[in-house]
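> agent: user asked for a holo structure of the chain below bound to ribulose-5-phosphate. Plan: (1) validate sequence alphabet, (2) canonicalize SMILES, (3) run complex prediction with ligand conditioning, (4) return tokens. Step 1... ok. Step 2... ok. Step 3 dispatched.
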Amino acid sequence: MSKLIAPSVLAADFANLQRDIEMINNSDADWIHIDVMDGVFVPNISFGIPVIKAIQKHAKKTMDVHLMIVNPDQYISTFKNIGANNLTVHFEACTHLHRTIQAIQKEGMKAGVALNPHTPISVLEDVIMDIDLICLMSVNPGFGGQNFIENTYKKIIQLKHMIEQSGSSALIEIDGGVTDQNAHKLISAGADILVAGSFVFKSQNPSETIQNLRLLANS
Ligand SMILES: O=C(CO)[C@H](O)[C@H](O)COP(=O)(O)O
Ligand SMILES: [Fe+2]
């Protein structure tokens, strides 16, 4: 399977959101990564339902929604209705993670679980067969533009091993601080999807930057 690039709209120009979504549509990007922050689970508030509805009107790529919120269960059907294809919840925010995963899949979405940098991958041992996607946070969630945490490589290698040993088909997504400097190394360690926000949207030519990341990921 080719490796995927998911630009994060957290770093887009919100006053020109339609323009930036169309840039993603016309680029080599595979997914659109959409970060939802509630100011409780993480110390920041990004955007919510009305903005994602507006994104849905224009988005032509897989909508990969990353929930950094407490009590995600109460919004699962809402996110389905506004176009989420993948719905990722945080391990640290779910008391009944297995129930949450089942509820996401019952709505017809792919279920993802995100782990904070301090959370060991071993917490996924008993749900690894049930998950479609694992999002390893390579920064502390809440903000774009942070520095990549080097310990992530070790976690990818461990997680890849766990996935292979178990026979799970879960994909590994890396979120935070992804650039052209670490993209190839992340893929070599076992990543399947790279999320990139600031590196794409702060570049001179975001579409070319996406193309470059995709080439690096698949070289
Ligand atoms: O979930 C996130 C932050 O919590 C974002 O997806 C992530 O930060 C991407 O932004 P950048 O590439 O600028 O680090
Ligand atoms: Fe994210």
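> agent: step 4 complete. Summary for user: The pocket of fe (ii) ion (ligand 2) is lined by residues 8, 33, 35, 66, 175, 195 (CB under 6 Å). The radius of gyration is 16 Å.
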